[in-house]
Design brief:
Strand order of the largest sheet: 7-8-9-10-11-12-13-14
Number of domains: 2
Strand content: 15-25%
Helix content: 25-40%
CATH class of the largest domain: Alpha Beta
Largest sheet: 8 strands, parallel, barrel
CATH topology of the largest domain: TIM Barrel
Shape: elongated
CATH architecture of the largest domain: Alpha-Beta Barrel
Length: 336
């Protein structure tokens, strides 16, 4: 349920009403717009007398929310969320460009790539220290050593680092060391993990599960936000369909739908959607044209010898071409 207050209602009156409805068993959150204040209610609203609320002089209207997700719902938060992270941001006017290798393989490898992508326009550095792989015999990442290498790359380049968390047991280290925590597609409905990162105050990049509906995706974000961490970034990375030519099928319609339903930033990972190097650029261009707030691109200086996902990783010079081609599209979309 959403209570829309009339223009001119004082903050004290808004807070007083919020306190009143919370005594009836709900949890309220206040969003202050330019003209209206909105109180979003989460929980059991059966004890609330809607008629009495509507009769109040300072209440403009009551809106019922049918969707099961509340905090992620744009009705509760009409303005787009923007997260400032280091010198960069995700959401708003700036296009976030997250780039780097699928996996951290060595200090030499990561530092070389980090310097390249920074020079070519990246605003964040990605790299997996812990790698969930389909095969137990595949490279699983360097673990904590990989985190230390990412931190060194951040120190040298100034780029905020994005890396994947796989277990609630890693919360302590990640919460203190990482700028953006990634929750991978395989863990989108790992509810214990979602609750754990919900206790942190570190931005979370949540990837859509391979067979998840958009409602299920937003409900996973709701798990994190319900814990108190409202800095969630949604990432469309392709879903599993009957098509076998590509690794996954990029659901480009997810971008405008998610942005209509939610205030959370939406980025796209064309590398995992395509699984094929030459497809990454056109899918990235389509994502920006559809209104994505950012991209996550895999870049490797020697894809043929990459320990993970070399077939979809761009060379640094190809990444530069991609950045140069998407910037004009972004300007058109923003009406510049």
């Amino acid at each position: 349920m959403i209570i829309v207050m009339k223009p001119g209602t004082t903050p004290e009156e808004v807070n007083r009403l919020k306190d009143e409805v919370e005594l009836l068993g709900c949890k309220g959150s206040i969003t202050q717009g330019e003209n209206y204040a909105i109180i979003g209610l989460v929980g059991d609203t059966r004890n609330i007398n809607v008629g009495q609320l509507e009769a109040r002089a300072n209440v403009a209207k009551i809106m019922h929310v049918a969707e099961p997700y509340k905090k992620a719902n744009r009705l509760f938060h009409p303005k787009d969320s923007v997260y400032k992270i280091g010198e960069s941001s995700i959401g708003g006017k700036e296009l976030a460009i997250i780039a780097g290798p699928c996996a951290v393989e060595s200090e030499e490898q990561l530092l070389s790539i980090a310097k390249d992508v920074k020079r070519m326009g990246a605003t964040f550095l990605r790299g997996g220290a812990f790698k969930p792989r389909t095969s137990p015999y595949s490279f699983q990442g360097l673990g904590q050593e990989g985190i230390e290498i990412l931190k060194e790359a951040r120190r040298i380049t100034g780029l905020p680092i994005v890396t994947e968390m796989m277990s609630p047991a890693q919360v302590g280290a990640f919460g203190e060391e990482v700028d953006v925590i990634q929750i991978g597609a395989r863990n989108m409905q790992n509810f214990d993990l979602l609750k754990a990162v919900g206790q942190l105050r570190v931005p979370v990049l949540l990837k859509r599960g391979m067979a998840a509906t958009l409602t299920e995706f937003l409900m996973a974000a709701e798990y994190i936000m319900a814990g108190g961490n409202e800095q969630v970034i949604l990432c469309e990375r392709g879903i599993r369909t009957f098509e076998t030519y590509t690794r996954n099928t990029l659901d480009i319609s997810a971008v405008p739908v998610l942005k209509k339903k939610s205030h959370l930033p939406v980025i796209v990972d064309p590398s995992h959607a395509a699984g094929i190097r030459w497809l990454v650029e056109p899918l990235a261009m389509a994502a920006v044209a559809a209104g994505a707030d950012g991209l996550s691109i895999e870049v490797h200086n020697n894809p043929e010898k990459a320990l993970s996902d070399g077939q979809q990783s761009l060379l640094p010079e190809d990444f530069k071409k991609l950045v140069d081609r998407i910037r004009p599209i972004r300007k058109v979309i923003q009406g510049e």
